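Title: [Solved] RING-type E3 ubiquitin transferase 3D structure

Original question kept below for reference.
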Amino acid sequence: MRLALYGGVSTLLATAVIVEAFRQRSNFYTACIYLAKSSACMLIILNAGIFISIMLGRLLQAVFFGQLRPIEVEHLYEKSWYAVTETCLAMTIFRDEFDIQFVIVFTTLLFLKIFHWLCQDRVEYMEQTPAVPANFHARMISLMSALLVIDCRLASRAISTIMVKGPNMMIMFGFEYAILTSTIVSTIGKYTLNVIESRMDEPWESKSIFVFYLDLVTDFFKLITYMVFFAIICNFYGLPLHIIRDVYVTFRSFIQKCRDLYRYRRATRNMNELYPDATEEDLQRTSDSTCIICREDMHIRATEGDPQAGGQSEPEPVRGRNSDIPKKLPCGHIFHFGCLRSWLERQQSCPTCRRSVLPEGLYYNHIFRS
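Solution (posted by the thread starter after getting help):
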């Protein structure tokens, strides 16, 4: 109701201003000059343009996303507020170039950012949905392809403008479109991984590590982009205070991911040697033989020639089917091999007692042996 009222008032005012301009001026050219020279008229027309952008966004939302989930609406409000605040701070650097073109380019940027955020939320939602309809894939593929093309074109246009006219406000927008390009490429990569997993009969255990590497590469590209932008702004305009936080957050995220990768590689290297197979006595010693990660019971799978098999032994588990083998951590807790590997991709500590899965003594011995 409020949007309809806002749209009606905005459209009425814009129509009145344009009609009055053409009534007082003899031809189209002079009427346009009058509208462009009047600050009040331009504000009214720009306000109507914002309303048209909102309606266009709602139409595209209905086409590509349908009804938004409450969490998606919440994310939009949070990210939009931050994006507007950040751009207002950036305007202090380019305050001499603030004009109608700046407002139009900024509105376009915010418009595109909203659809990038929605794409990210929908791709994450795919992981929580057992099956998605075919029209969902058609919508996502078409939208992500369009966003990738638009991002690349606008980033290229901004760079061309800077090369021809020298440093100007397009530095900021070129940088923003470069970040959006990396974001949509990462989203497309995660969507592809989700589609591959959905077509597998069993859970894809290696998927999370591919997602991790994808996030690591994306953060590295963003960090390089931020550093280049920071250096250019410092060289031509002075210290950009508004970008310091983004540089720090991206740098910290990249370092944390590198640290997590190192810990993960260290924890999963030679898992059969670091974490021995649990025995029947180990399972009996525990109060509960349930793997707390997947909440399923753990059983010892006998191999051929095992006297404990009682003549009904199973063959040695083949590669890809050993995910249910119980593995014993140095702290004594037991988990499925596949569950443990998936857990170590996120944390390198025991899910039960939070102790490190790689004792320091064992780690140093491993280094000396290698």
